[in-house]
Structure formats: structure tokens, C-alpha cells
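Dear all,

This email documents one entry for the complex benchmark we are building for the journal club exercise. For each entry we list the sequence lines for every component of the assembly. Then comes the predicted three-dimensional structure of the complex as a C-alpha cell string, followed by one or two observations. Please use this as the template for your own entries, and keep the labels exactly as they appear.
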Amino acid sequence: ASALPNRYLDEEGELSPLSEQEEESKGSDDDIRVVNGKEIQRKGVETKPFITNPRAVEKCTRYVDTDLNRAFTTENLSAPSGDDLPYEVQRAQQINEIFGPKGSPEAYDVIFDLHNTTSNMGCTLILESSKDHFNLQMMHYIKKAIAPDSCPVLLTEHPLLKYSTSRSVAKHPIGLEVGPQPQGVLRSNIFESMRVVLKHALDFIELFNEGLEFPPCTVDVFRVSEKIDYPRDTNGNIIAMVHPNLQDCDWEPLNPGDPMFQMFDGTTLRYEDVETKLEKCKSNLKTLQQALSE
Amino acid sequence: ASALPNRYLDEEGELSPLSEQEEESKGSDDDIRVVNGKEIQRKGVETKPFITNPRAVEKCTRYVDTDLNRAFTTENLSAPSGDDLPYEVQRAQQINEIFGPKGSPEAYDVIFDLHNTTSNMGCTLILESSKDHFNLQMMHYIKKAIAPDSCPVLLTEHPLLKYSTSRSVAKHPIGLEVGPQPQGVLRSNIFESMRVVLKHALDFIELFNEGLEFPPCTVDVFRVSEKIDYPRDTNGNIIAMVHPNLQDCDWEPLNPGDPMFQMFDGTTLRYEDVETKLEKCKSNLKTLQQALSE
Ligand SMILES: [Zn+2]
Ligand SMILES: [Zn+2]
């Protein structure tokens, strides 16, 4: 399934103009160009390529009004529909109609939610529930198929840090996050890695539908344990960068005492003392700001 | 000069919310937070940190209405000002008023135009004229000062491919392009490399103003010779990616016969035959599209 990029950024980071065809199909939801449909066809499997947020794609941003990938709450999905709703909430309702309803027997079996990110996440599968045996088997199959290349699994099951994704409309929601690849950029190696994972995922579904039995398996997963915000000043402004030792080290252990952030003056904040040092920095900065405003 | 990032993208690529202070200063042009003013102070040099396109920064895009870095044409700068002009044209006029007028004796001596890019350009100085001896001396000074680190110089002097940059308002316009670093992301190594180049640039100006004499020098530069667009189908849609062998190889030679683009089916387009193969691909694609629509 090759959804071709409509826009690109030139060397200067400028967004390429829309082609005539794109101008015409602007805002339409069917702007997916499948170059070779065969690639996503499998015996006994119905597949539907789909762009979840065409207006954001058009603008080369994550979203227009509100984050679509947080919008699939019961509240939003059951809200009276109308043009006054944020675009992404309207879109969530449409997607729920096409692929859902969420939680119902009529919902699609699988949604493979294809994302890219500026983080160095490689090719990461995202699993929403440790009880989803179908997905666990699929991920096990994919990991084996692409070895020695790696494909980490991130389990987002968490009492507080979980959110209502687009893919959650299907019975078996699977996220695939590839990176580093900024918005508006298509890197051949990243594209290829996504393509390969998708190929094996579809192969698995075909085999499953053919009745192949899969023996019990275990899958190593990363779990969300904690989220740490950037250091901020009293006004909420970010005042540090990811430390060079930590930058791009996705999926590597971060131990107490390891460098985590770097302040703009070069000071290092470490994992164990982010909180305490931050308090000190804030008060230093406040003093500095006062001194400057005098 | 540390202009702190106001926004950032989280792991999911989501733009961080504006802080309260940011909400208040939204749209104002003075939203630069200089952490340590001393860093840009030099004896006998007046420096003014400035965000050229605050609305674009706020939205985390390159521009709002039109590319500011192409907007400094005589036509735009002399147009009757008014709210009906595109935002960036209004902004170009303001910048011309503050730092110009372009081409006049009152214009600022130097504008150091700080950019980032998704391309692997490293730390590249951009020179607009091979006759600008002041800039050539400065670049020579910077290159020597940061060695063995490299700092390529790109000379954009070209009868057709030159454009009207923001920095062209000053007598000595200098661009500094650092990357790879997408919009909304601040990488400590990229930030540091920009900081170091800026430090040496300011040191040079201080020495120059003190009357230090600089002996004649030569500077190796890259020149713009040709621009090659992405391969596109008959509708203008991009149909290939940068070839993995060429990706990130900024400033390395591209010889006739070298792989340049990769089509989505894996086909390689080489430097010498991009044009001819492209014609063939287009007609193939047309046949395929016809076959699909039948
Ligand atoms: Zn630029
Ligand atoms: Zn994502």
C-alpha cells in the first residue's frame, strides 16, 4: 500500500505547491493514491487504505483543531454531530461510522495505524492491551519475520497515561510508529521499513484466516512507566534540550544519574535529580529575570 | 543569543500547548527570550536578536501566507502598505523599515539569518555575492576558527536561481543553515554548532571594528549549478523518494550514473537518465491508471 506523499519540503523547508489534481481533491477524504493495489491484497482479507486526517495532511501539520489520535472518547463519539464540532471530532465520528462503531461486533477486526515521528523510534509496534492475543501473535510473527532487524513493541496499557486513539475503533488496534522522519519528509529507508512490517502483518492475517494454528508465544514489550516533561521556567517555557547523550537513544535504558537534559548554558540535568535541580534553576532564573527588569 | 523554543513536538509529534505568557505575547514580534545577553555582546558592535516570522514560529510552520524568505522584492517593499497584503509582505515591509531600507546607506551592516532544515546540511554559511569581501573574510575567519569541524559555504549567486531573502535588506547578508533539524525540534548538537558559528562571526566583527587588518584570502565555495525536481506523474504528484545512497549526502559529489531517486516499486533513477526514464515511467503509469479505471 503506497500512499504517495502529496507535498514535500524543499532544501529550505518550503512546502511544495499543491498540484492541480491535489487542488481539486483538496479536502476530499479519498486522496490516497494506491500505486500497486496488489501489495495490500491477501486471500480472504478485505483491506481498505485510508487517510484519517486529510486536512492535516494537506496542511502538513499534525491536526487542524484538536489531536485526532486523542479524540475517540465516548463523549466525542456520542456527541450530536454538526459543523460546529472541531474538525477532528467530526472526523472521529465519520471514522467511527465507517470502521466501528467502537466496541460493537460490527467494528472492523483490525486497524493498522501508520504514523511517523521525529523521534528515533525505528519501527515500533504499539499494543494497547496485553490481553489482545490476536495482536500478540501478530507481533510475535512480525518480529520473527523481520529478524535480525528489530521491531520493538510498546505496550501503552496504563491506568492513567492511556488515551483514545483512532485505531481503538477496531477490535484489534495496532499502531506502527516509524522514525526519525519529520512531517512532509519521506525517507526511503523509513518508508521501506514500514512497508516490510505491513507486508508481514497482512501475511499473518491471511495465514490466520486460512486456519493456521499459532502455538502459545511470549512477546517482549516496553511499558509506559512514567512521563517526564521538559524543564520549564515559571511561565511554562521550556528551558532545556534533550541531553546529547540521551538524544536518539530510544529504547535504551535510562539509569538514575544518567544525563537527561541540557540547559542552554550547558548545565546537565540528570535523571534522578531533574525535579530538585529544576526547582533551583527556576529560582535562579527568577532572580536573573528580576535583575534584568531592574 | 539564545532564542528559546516556545513549542515542541512530543513523541507522537504533537505540538506542545502555548504557555500563558506565550498566549499573551502571541502575535507580538518581541517574543525572543535572551537567556544570557552577554553572549551576543561585543565591544563596538550593536546586536539585535529578532524573530523574522513570529506568526509562523507560533504555528510551527515555515510561513502563514507566503514565503517570507522570497518576499523582499522591490515590488513588495514598495507596495502601498495595508492589512490586505499577505502577512509576510507586511512583515517584509516592517523588517525593511527596521533594518533597511534595502540598498540604502542607512541599512544595517550585517544580517545573520539563522535557519534550520530537515536536510543534512551540517552548518552551512550562505553567501549571496562573490564580491562581498567583508563576508568572504568573515567566512574565512569562521572556517579557520571551527576547524577541524567543517562549515561549507554555499554561494547562491546565480542569474536565474537567486531570490530575494530577508537578509538581503542588510549590506552584508549572511545565511546560516543548520540541519538536520525539523521544525519544532531543537537538537542540542545542532543548537551548539549554530551557537559556535555565531560566536566566531561576532568575534570577527569585533576585531574588524577594532581595526584589525585581514590579509587577502580565498574561500572554497559550493555554487548552485542546477535544480532537479522530484520525478512527478502527469498530475504533478511526486512519484519517487531520494535514493538511499544519496539521502543525507549533502555536499558530496553526485556523478553521472549515480543513483538519485527511488521509485515506489524500488526502481532506481540515476543522475544522467532522470529525464529520459521519467518520461517512460509517466507513460507506464498512465497505462496503469487507465487499466485501473477500466
Ligand atoms: Zn532556510
Ligand atoms: Zn504517532
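Observations: Chain B touches chain A through 57 residues (CB under 8 Å). The CA atoms of residues 233 and 243 of chain B lie 18 Å apart.
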